[in-house]
Amino acid sequence: MDWEAFSTLHDGLDREGPGCADDVRWAVGMAGTHGEARVLDAGCGPGADTETLAHELPEAWIDAVDLHAPFAAATAARCSRFGPRVKAWQGDMAKVAGPYDLIWCAGAMYFLGVTEGLGAFRGMLTRAGRVAFSEPVLLSDKEPPEVHAFWSDYPQITDRAGVEDRIAAAGYRTLGTRLVIGAPWEAYYAPLERRIADLRSAGPSSALDAALKREEAEIAAWRAAPDRIAYLLSVVEPA
């Protein structure tokens, strides 16, 4: 990956994946997180969900970590008004000390694998700690070709039962699930489309042009089946 082209395209966007504030609120409620909880936003991107966590949990202490340093910096700036109870830094989300009452991981668990990621998070949880994460999911075993084309770079994708199997293999049980579909994806792709249009009008370099074409192809693939492409948001706890 050309990181300069990636940064030019992505840095400054509101979020780095599908989602919305309602997803965060639902997960916080399902997890029962409250009061002076310790929370980790694992793979925080530019901090959209970190900000929502800070609003929803006004007494919580929130850490946010992302491997891409500009995202961590953007999160720190975005959440500076919350003072010292929100901290963000560049780092490996699987190697944070904790312990945490809630680990929120939106659209980033696939970097580790569900079973492997939950295994890494187990040692970062308090005794009553819970994990909320989203994972690509097939809605049925007979999805149209457009859906399989969209997920062609993620051969590990499975259905709900497959996600549940991976959760159980990590020694967790599921408290609740929610589909991330439709509008939360538009909330990510629409600003990205506007950024692509702006960059094209400025005459992109060959490396940036290649990055723009990749993103355009992804957006077009999503628009071919927006009601069938989904994440499964799960709230889980060690069994």
From TrEMBL:
Pfam (any one): Methyltransf_25
InterPro entries associated with the record: Methyltransf_25 (IPR041698), SAM-dependent_MTases_sf (IPR029063)
Keyword Methyltransferase tagged: yes
Signal peptide interval: none
Keywords associated with the record: Methyltransferase, Transferase
Methyltransferase domain boundaries: 39-116
SUPFAM superfamilies on file: S-adenosyl-L-methionine-dependent methyltransferases
GO biological process annotation, one example: methylation
Molecular function GO terms recorded: methyltransferase activity
Coiled-coil residues: none
Domain of life: Bacteria
Keyword Transferase found: yes
Protein name as annotated: Methyltransferase domain-containing protein
Taxonomic source organism: Tropicimonas isoalkanivorans
Lineage, highest ranks first: Bacteria, Pseudomonadati, Pseudomonadota, Alphaproteobacteria, Rhodobacterales
